[in-house]
Amino acid sequence: MEYLDFEKPIQEIKDQYINCILIEKKSGVDMKEVCNQLQYKLEKTIKKLYSKLTPWQRVQLSRHPNRPYTLDYILSITNNKSFIELHGDRNFGDDKAMIGGFGKIEDITFMFIGTQKGKNTKDRQYRRFGMPNPEGYRKALRLMKLAEKFRKPIVSFIDTPGAFPGIEAEKRGQGEAIGRNIYEMMCMKVPIIILIIGEGASGGALGIGIGDKVSMMENSWYSVISPESCSTILWGDWKEKEKSAESLKLTAEDMQKLNLIDDVIKEPLGGAHFNPEQAYKIVKKKIIKYYKELSSIDIEKLINDRKNKYIAIGCFND
After folding, report:
1. 42-61 burial, b if ≥16 CB within 10 A, otherwise e?
2. Are 222 and 271 in contact (CB under 8 A)?
3. Could you say which of 38, 66, 130, 298 is the most buried, measured as most Cβ atoms within 10 Å of its Cβ?
4. Which pTM does this prediction carry?
5. Are 157 and 265 within 8 A, CB to CB?
6. Phi and psi torsions of 212, nearest 5°
7. What pLDDT sits at residue 150?
8. Which element (helix H / strand E) includes 99?
9. Nearest by Cα to 244 from 63, 62, 54
């Protein structure tokens, strides 16, 4: 387990707890009371630490190297059995930063799509750090159209620092691809569930982020720009990132207060990276709950409600 700077107190107590267990095993001395005290202290420290996180600390957690990624969620909630990944946009190529395919939860077939980061240096390069090219968004749209054809609900996992900013991506129509997805998702004749599980940055997130239910994991963020980029633009230095994170109102709690999302998904104590299995169960339960709510609504009303949800954003009454 890797620890962030503000998680160091947890690491210290956890190391003491592990040493306590090792001493008991090696020496045979009864250390149960000491271990219990350390375990109690660990739980108390975790609760205290995570009860007062700053927006910047939430951003750091969203990028935690041990945090579960899209494929982790999909494979777990489909029991590592039913997910069939589909490839290519049928035009240019197969973008590895965007994944998708059919899978089942409790005998209900879903179309899963999402941005995928990598777990090590080689994998991160392969996945382009979760930053899709235009063909990634076009692949996602192709799969969503396929889901619509067979009347299967769509679940979209968002965890991206943004669309890939390269010249080649612009040449192949990055803006058009994202805009087309937003336009098409507004009118999809199937329920769409959006889950922001980590980073939700800019148009890169919006390109697969239009839905009937939009939810954020407790330690995720959603904004038009990252705190570092915002700090660089406003103050000419990325070191003001904590200040910009506060000003951007990018946390799940902020998003819910502003009525930009529908729900905040509580994570296990200490965050999803502390207990991935529990995080998978929570997300799976939420998807089933949302699906049952949405599937009972007439499709024309569902589309109308979806459009009105986004039309209402930014509107003010006199």
Report:
1. beebbeebbeebebbbbbbb
2. no
3. 130
4. 0.93
5. no
6. -85, -35
7. 97
8. strand 98-105
9. 54
